[in-house]
Amino acid sequence: MLNKLVYLRGVASTATSGSPFAHHYPLHFSLRFCTTTSNSPSFAVSYLIYNFGFSPESASRTSTSYNISFQSPEKPESVISFFRNRGFSKPQINNMVRKHPWLLSCDPCKRILPKFDFFLSKGVSSSKIVELVSTYPEVLAPSLKNHIVPTYELVYRFLQSDVNTIASMCGNLFFTSGYRPARNVRVLQENGVRESNIARLLRYRSKAVFSSTDIVKFVEKLKGLGFDPSKSAFAIALIAVTSLSRSRWKEKVNAFKKWGWSDEAVLEAFRRYPSCMLTSIEKINIVMNFWVNQLGWDALNLVQCPRILGSSMEKTIIPRGLVVQYLLAKGLRKKSASRFSPFIFCEKVFLEKYVIFFKEETCQLLKLYQQKNYVQGKEEDSGACGLVQALEKWIGVHVGVVKRKDQDQQQKYERFYSRKNKSRLGFSGLGGDILSGLGSDTMRNTFLDTCPKLKLRRYRSCHDMPGKYSAIEVETKSVFPHAERISTCCPGRIGGGCRQQGSH
User: Fold this and answer.
1) Which candidate, 282, 262, 286, 266, places its Cα nearest to that of 274?
2) Amino acid 169: pLDDT
3) CB atoms inside a 10 Å sphere around CB 38
4) Residue 176: its pLDDT value, please?
5) How many Å apart are CA 351 and CA 58, to the nearest integer?
6) Does residue 360 sit in the same domain as residue 421?
7) Residues 84, 93: contact at Cβ < 8 Å?
8) Does any domain span residue 71?
9) Which of 137, 190, 416, 492 gives a 20 to 30 Å CA spacing to 373?
10) Residue where a domain stops, chosen among 335, 354, 385
11) Does one domain contain both 302 and 422?
12) Lowest-pLDDT range, 41-45, 208-212, 415-419, 430-434?
């Protein structure tokens, strides 16, 4: 075959012009002639090698696979300029091209711009489009008319939100296929899965479920295990079986079996609480270790209530376990009583049933309840903060914050006011302020003894009975670190309606 002499048109002039992409063409490449024969690389291959760091083998393979056959720099440069003019950085463009080199040979105004316009019409800002496309450049591959729009309309039907729909679709394989999500949704609906559960799947684990090619097999498998497709547990179970590979599933089964569970016990726990198979192996071992070695209880108890595995070690499992263990040791709770029921109550009910109810033991129980120093042998903060938060939840109050300043305008302390009136302020609970709501001198004294950084004062206002403890001065914010997230209440008092009557 005759040699054909090809000059890289425009490259030399581009390299010396003010183009922001002049540096894309190395001098030794842009000023030379290339001779192309049947054995020499094409212009596209050379372009990928010199401008995007492809190896010769990878560039040749990519050029063939994606049918990249441009013979001059005009087309790829127009693509690069298109992205650059819309806010994409050089690293972002390089990353996109390396993942999807077909971009260099497309017409950006025909294939890419309409998709940008579609996202803009759905409320996605230009900066978010840059973030979206640079992170998930595969969204540019499918047809707008045949794939993106039908999939968007399908997902939006369940989520009813442009923001949630975009979030669900981005980064998912099913985005590139118009038929698969529609088919999978149809399979779920035909098997009785409610729309609310389909929405949950789309919102939280759309990639695992809607990119599945075996959705029918998974649905039948779960129905065979006794799951009701109309229940929310079915959706969670479907997430579990589609998310975990066979090897990963086996690893989690073995983690449970290490603590004495059988295969049947694992399946029973999965039926009761499908999320147990989504719990990390590390968390499984931590919970089991505390349950068996610290509390001295049978690991098989958790088969009856595997939802405990989903609870927080620091906030629920450790403090409640220590309280129940103390009650059993003192003979205040029958040994035959349920081991897991104390872990499923809300905070307020637990404190009422297992702490406040035992008046003579309340002080010790509260001290146990605030202990959080077991996790993997590491000592955690077991100070007043946990107790204050627990008591706040138990009473059912939220508190307002007032930052007080001295004459030098330096912050001196903060006051935390409680919500007093249930009907006026809209909370459910016993009512009363933090101290008077405790119900007994023992509880008040325990509260103050455990929280030495709190100072108690009496206040009165139009909302308070004289002599009631309606405010607590806090000299350090560490006692109540979440104060910034608590809404201020009782504006009349905050504006100066609360007058100090005296110290106690």
Assistant:
1) 266
2) 81
3) 6
4) 58
5) 65
6) no
7) yes
8) yes
9) 416
10) 385
11) no
12) 430-434
Q: Which amino acid is at 65?
A: S
Total domain count, the chain:
4
Angle between helices 232-243 and 195-210 (to 10 degrees): 0
Asked whether residue 21 falls in the same domain as residue 108, the answer is yes
Rounded CA separation 452/455 (Å): 8
Whole-angstrom distance, CA of residue 177 vs CA of residue 182: 9
pLDDT of 401 over the 60 cut:
no
Residue 404: beta bridge partners? 413
Residues 287, 306: contact at Cβ < 8 Å? no
| Same domain assignment for residues 123 and 57 | yes
pLDDT tens-digit series, residues 352-392: 888 888 888 878 888 887 765 444 343 333 333 444 444 44
CA 31 to chain centre: 52
Same domain, yes or no, for 1 and 127? yes
Clarify whether residues 310 and 205 are in a common domain: no
281's tokens: 């192996």
The answer to whether residues 476 and 405 belong to one domain is: yes
Separation of alpha carbons 331 and 315, rounded Å: 25
- In 10 A of CB 191, how many CB atoms? 16
Residues in the chain: 504
- Residue 32 within any structural domain of the chain: yes
**In this predicted model, what pLDDT tens digit does every residue of 316-327 receive, in sequence order?**
999 999 999 999
Six-digit token string for 99: 């993942």
Contact (CB, 8 A) for 457 and 471: yes
Does an H or E element contain 229, and which?
Answer: none
Helix (H) or strand (E) holding 372, with range, is: none
Query: For the whole model, what pTM was predicted?
Result: 0.60
H helix intervals, 398-440? 422-425
Give the number of other CB atoms < 10 A from CB of residue 306.
24
- Pairing type for strands 454-460 and 411-418 reads unpaired
Q: Quick check: is 34 in a domain?
A: yes
Question: Which domain range does residue 449 map to?
Answer: 397-503
pLDDT for res 177: 60
